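Technical annex, item 7. During the second reporting period the consortium partners agreed on a shared format for inverse folding records so that results from different sites could be compared directly. Each record opens with the tokenized structure and is followed by the designed sequence. A conforming record, contributed by the partner at site C, is shown below for reference.
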């Protein structure tokens, strides 16, 4: 066992970890089960969290790699009583069916809009292309995220 310390949802936390433990395993065994395990191979985005401002897949990150970093999970973003605007937009757009992909979608979209609030539709589509949804067909998800980008983000006419 090894001890690591990092900032988790705004709080400095210390955990004992196994050398080969992944970040998703660490989060989920500490009741942060909003981070979903889909493929477990870095292919679906359902386990996305934000590390130092960038969306990363927690299933392919070893826990020891987050030592000293800042990690944000869906639990730090919003909840049923105080949803983040992205969560509200996704719900309002009918972009949540089974909901399994939703936390990863929120985290990936949030990472982009935090850095680039006026991201264009093309940038949003490109940024979310690693997040898979087996239910919705993506249109409503993209509409919701696009709606959350700052005004004046329309693609320039070519
Ligand atoms: S569960 Fe991590 S990318 Fe699919
Ligand atoms: S809403 Fe079911 S996987 Fe996306």
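Designed sequence (site C submission):
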């Amino acid at each position: 066992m090894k001890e690591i310390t990092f900032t988790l949802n705004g709080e400095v936390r210390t955990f004992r970890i196994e050398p080969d433990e992944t970040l998703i395993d660490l989060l989920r065994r500490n009741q942060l089960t909003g981070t979903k395990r889909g493929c477990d191979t870095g292919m679906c985005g359902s386990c996305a969290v934000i590390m130092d401002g960038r969306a990363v897949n927690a299933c392919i990150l070893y826990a020891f790699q987050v030592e000293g970093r800042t990690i944000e999970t869906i639990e730090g973003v919003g909840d049923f009583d105080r949803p983040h605007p992205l969560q509200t937009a996704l719900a309002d757009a009918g972009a949540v069916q089974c909901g399994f992909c939703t936390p990863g979608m929120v985290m990936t979209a949030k990472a982009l809009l935090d850095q680039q609030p006026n991201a264009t539709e093309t940038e949003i589509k490109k940024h979310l292309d690693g997040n898979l949804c087996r239910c919705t067909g993506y249109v409503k998800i993209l509409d919701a995220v696009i709606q959350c980008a700052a005004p004046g983000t329309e693609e320039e006419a070519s």
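Residues 56 and 92 are 26 Å apart (CA to CA). The first strand starts at residue 2 and ends at 8. All partners now use this format for quarterly exchanges.
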